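agent: user wants the full assembly modeled, not chains individually. Plan: 1) parse entity lines 2) check alphabet per entity 3) run joint structure prediction 4) return tokens. Steps 1-2 passed, two entities, 303 residues total. Proceeding.
--- entities ---
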Amino acid sequence: MKLQKATRCALFAILELAAGQDRQLSANEIAEKYGISTNHLAKVLRSLGRVGLVEAVRGAGGGYRFSGNRRRTTLLDIIQLFETIDPIRNGEREDGDNTSEGKALCQVLMEIEDTARATFASITLDTMIKMVERGR
Amino acid sequence: MANSQLKQPEKKCTVRLAREADISQVIAIDAENTGLSKDEYWKDLYERYNRRPSDADEDAPLKSVNRYRFFLVACDGDSVLGFIIGEVRAWEFGSPPCGWVFAIGVHNHLRQGGVGNTLFDALCDRFRKAGVYKVRTMLARDHTLIMSFFRSQGMMAGPFIELEKEL
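--- prediction returned ---
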């Protein structure tokens, strides 16, 4: 499974900002660590700001701060701001889907989508940050 | 989606084997969590897990299969704050001995107060004493809140997949 670029940027930024109480970082600092474009990351941060997950801090030494609840925000909450991980469950159809073979294939793909959704929906930022810390 | 960083203060509690007098409170917690009151189910579980006299002493050596079953409660005095049930099972589905968590429940208003963590740790300690070093559970895919709890304990998808069909 592959996540889109914007989704990965958002996850990296949120994990970075939520890693410490009142942690404040600039888009540049985050972009540099993950080797991503600052412009792209700035757009992503604006999207995260619109749903209240991050807030911009103005002035000298400004940047961004996590403003959500890391024990209640899940990976799915962030991912679905940028992409759909279960297109078939959401009604997206492709050529051949109306044939018996297509229907059987959709059934198998939906099983995979449902598992992916449950996985992302059950991993909070807090759990993810603990996983990161264990891996250090 | 975003909300405050408010976290419940850690709730102090002690964990011990459930007693008959606790069961009505366990039933109430489960009913609060699930919306269903299952009196007979809980009474039957208590009979099967903790009723034998050998279960009265938690430090007794593991003599019977019954010592591998644990119905625990977290208490503050006489108040039951939460419960957890687990047992060591071996060779089912080809699996070597492993601790299974069957049920966990905590009063809704005490969530995020650490009671679930304390119960889970207490059960894992008993599993270790029983000689197993892996703990497993099974959950409905759409019960993401409880799945989040087990994930927060470091649990990940295991090597088994549950399959079923309509009959």
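agent: reporting back. Chain A has a mean pLDDT of 94. Strands of chain A lie at 24-25, 54-57, 63-66.
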